[in-house]
């Protein structure tokens, strides 16, 4: 019995000594981090905190200082990760929420930004000019498609969009679109004796984004298309359900598109990976794999894009899409590739220029390899789109 008591006593003594040693290590780490923080030595501070955490010396104070250092050095994804670690232990830390809000806005992640803003007090929200309900952005796009075919005229595309914040967790994006192209086929009359030549399409698109947590979002979208070709009228309805999960350097998304498109049953399954190796928009990649089932016929489509900052206010993005894109849905169902002739391959370049604090200009060029559905011959098409996004 005495032996057991002695063993327990030694165990308690050892635990107390370990705890005291750990507290001493933490006190030394906090002191060193404070010195580096006050000196503005951000890179060394980051290395020191990461090394301390690797050695099991961890605290919200250390994490906060590392997050601040990451934020000032432009690694916003790493900063968000550190601030989230702070909030796990200190859920009332208003400054961590505020900095999390800013870092997410810098990488265009409005869902997470507004989720963080929901935890700020009224005075802070008033200072940063933010309210529960409001406009988030407005978009205008105008494009022309130039087919290298004697039997196809130029196509024209227009889009106007508006984004709304309905609550801190819920956003709604809406777009109205119009497409027109004259289809020239000399002497051709189909079996309905229809001779009209113009393909017209009016569209309405709405996407809702709901922040389930600070790094998990739910997506829902609806796309209505009113298509007229020759004397036929088609009304199509498409939907999307998806989920997005943000991690330290990678964002993952899975979604399913479904509905009827020009009397065809459509199902499309997408898996998307966004990668930010520098933790910001100075370099990023997007990889997207899709399985499209159209009335029982299945196609695999792969899309890859790489973007990087080339000048202070200028970004370039290179993109390519491989596979049969007949009735393919892109950008969360915003763009529907249901032109007369299917696209077999697509690649292009986009230029983004930040014009002031609110306006972002973009110019896109895309080359498409298409197939004439009536004659089964290939031709090339060049597309140019000019757009402007205004962020409120």
From TrEMBL:
Signal sequence annotation: 1-21
InterPro entries: TPR-like_helical_dom_sf, TPR_rpt
SUPFAM superfamilies: TPR-like
Top-rank taxon: Bacteria
Keywords linked to the UniProt accession: Signal, TPR repeat
TPR repeat residue numbers: 60-93
Record protein name field: Tetratricopeptide repeat protein
